[in-house]
C-alpha cells in the first residue's frame, strides 16, 4: 500500500525554471526530470541512452500515480459513510 502523504518537493522553482522544465512536469518527480532532460539533450534524444535516468523517473511517476489512486479510494470510501 502506497503512502498517502505527499512527498517532499526536492527541486526548487528556480532550478526548474533554469532547467526550462515544462509546467506540466513540475511535479514531485521534477528533481528526476531535470537530469533526464539534460542527458537527453546531451545524447541527442537517442532512445538507448539515458535508460537509467528514464527508469528512475518513470518509477517516481508510477509511485506518485499509486499515491493518488490511494487518495481517491480513501476519499471515495469516506463519501460512502
Automatic annotation (TrEMBL):
Keyword presence, NAD: no
Signal sequence extent: none
Gene Ontology CC terms, in alphabetical order: mitochondrial inner membrane; mitochondrial intermembrane space
Intracellular or extracellular location(s): Mitochondrion inner membrane; Mitochondrion intermembrane space
Domain of life of the organism encoding this protein: Eukaryota
Pfam family, one: NDUF_B7
Major localisation: mitochondrion
Topological category with respect to the lipid bilayer: Peripheral membrane protein
UniProtKB keywords: Disulfide bond, Electron transport, Membrane, Mitochondrion, Mitochondrion inner membrane, Respiratory chain, Transport
InterPro entries found in the cross-reference section: NDUB7
Keyword Electron transport assigned: yes
Family membership: Belongs to the complex I NDUFB7 subunit family.
Record function comment: Accessory subunit of the mitochondrial membrane respiratory chain NADH dehydrogenase (Complex I), that is believed not to be involved in catalysis. Complex I functions in the transfer of electrons from NADH to the respiratory chain. The immediate electron acceptor for the enzyme is believed to be ubiquinone.
Protein name: NADH dehydrogenase [ubiquinone] 1 beta subcomplex subunit 7
